[in-house]
Specification:
The chain is an alpha/beta fold. The protein contains 12 helices and 7 strands. The chain has helices at residues 3-29, 50-61, 73-85, 104-115, 143-171, 196-212, 231-237, 242-248, 256-268, 278-286, 296-323, 325-334; strands at residues 41-45, 65-70, 94-98, 125-128, 176-180, 219-224, 273-275. The protein has a 7-stranded parallel beta sheet with strand order 3-2-1-4-5-6-7, sandwiched between helices.
């Protein structure tokens, strides 16, 4: 091997190592510029309860103008009162809008309404928290329930992103679009056949837009929270299969407030994939593909842990499922799904 080639190779490696260390130092010491939501107009779907409402209040506490969107006007009115309690200065504008955002037309109408108090200028940041989960076995589903599942998990965010991006590009607004997927957008298991596909799709959409929207100066982020102790979680547990409840019985969830803080911190620091706990980081690092890393060093450690631990964890999940086989057979016969 020629000495000159070796010299160039070593120089290249040294340069690469230096860039990695620089990136790590920026991440470690917070040298990168943090996004400030103060007096930015933030649009939050699913903003009447759960993580959406918690995010809306946190944005209000950070001095942002906040528009919340949901279907239930009574819940929106109550949420608006909570935003007023979080007000930091008299300049802030808080509004609540009742729209269905699982169509482009509904999303566009909501954005147009929210833009009116700002002389038609669209919001600076879109936090897409709309969605719902109704767990069940796949063999119990219908064409209608599968379509509903995609509407509640994917289209409720995709169509808002579509309407938002068209308006932002048209007006030249260089802002942010923040999706809310789920840790079940990294993996899935029994019970989530109508939920996980949409959450996986959100990741795919975010990955695409993170690349495309560099053309417009629009930042894209996607959050992957685990269990959130919210009214929606209580509702889904009423219909969740027993085997799914069994698998999840040791889960450590988080309150909407904790999740909202981690998501906003991730957005402010410029993270693309935002995970809220240790296990989320393990799944993120183990399935990163070509996605940009949050920390080269820590992601390597999390990925190594996942390489060793996740197959063991998956084996325990599969064992739990198989232990419920007889109980499930009885369940199927009771519902006429097994002869």
């Amino acid at each position: 091997m020629p000495d000159a080639w070796v010299s160039v190779s070593l120089t290249s490696l040294a340069l690469l190592a230096g860039l990695v260390l620089l990136a790590a130092s920026v991440n470690m010491f917070g040298l990168s510029k943090r996004w400030d939501p103060s007096l930015k107009h933030c649009f939050v779907t699913g903003g009447s309860s759960g993580a959406g409402l918690a995010l809306a209040k946190l944005l209000a506490q950070n001095g942002a103008h906040v528009s919340i969107v949901a279907r239930d006007q009574a819940k929106l009115n109550k949420a608006l009162e909570e935003l007023e309690a979080a007000r930091q200065n008299p300049q802030q504008v808080f509004r609540a809008y009742s729209f269905s955002v699982n169509t482009e037309a509904g999303s566009a109408a909501a954005i147009e309404a929210a833009s009116e108090p700002f002389d038609g200028r669209c919001p600076d940041a879109f936090f897409l928290c709309a969605g719902a989960s109704r767990p069940g076995f796949f063999v119990e589903q219908t064409e209608e329930s599968l379509r509903t599942g995609m509407e509640q998990t994917y289209y409720a965010q995709a169509f808002t992103a579509l309407a938002a991006s068209k308006t932002m590009v048209q007006q030249g607004v260089k802002g942010k679009i923040v999706f809310c997927s789920s840790i079940l957008g990294y993996f899935s298991m029994v019970g989530y056949s109508t939920y996980s596909p949409g959450k996986f799709a959100i990741r795919g959409l975010a990955e695409t837009l993170q690349s495309e929207f560099m053309l417009y100066g629009i930042d894209v982020h996607v959050a992957f929270p685990g269990t959130i102790y919210s009214p929606g979680y209580e509702e889904e547990n009423r219909v969740k299969p027993k085997v799914t409840l069994k698998i999840e019985e040791t889960d450590e969830g988080a309150t909407p407030e904790v999740v909202a803080k981690i998501i906003l911190d991730g957005v402010r620091s410029g993270k693309f994939h935002i995970t809220v706990d240790f296990i989320g980081n393990v799944f993120r690092s183990s399935t990163a593909g070509s996605t940009e890393r949050n920390s080269y060093a820590l992601d390597w450690v999390h990925g190594l842990i996942g390489y060793i631990a996740l197959p063991i964890w998956r084996n325990s999940v599969d064992s739990t499922v198989l232990k419920h086989r007889e109980e499930h057979e009885a369940y199927l016969r009771e519902r006429g799904l097994r002869s």
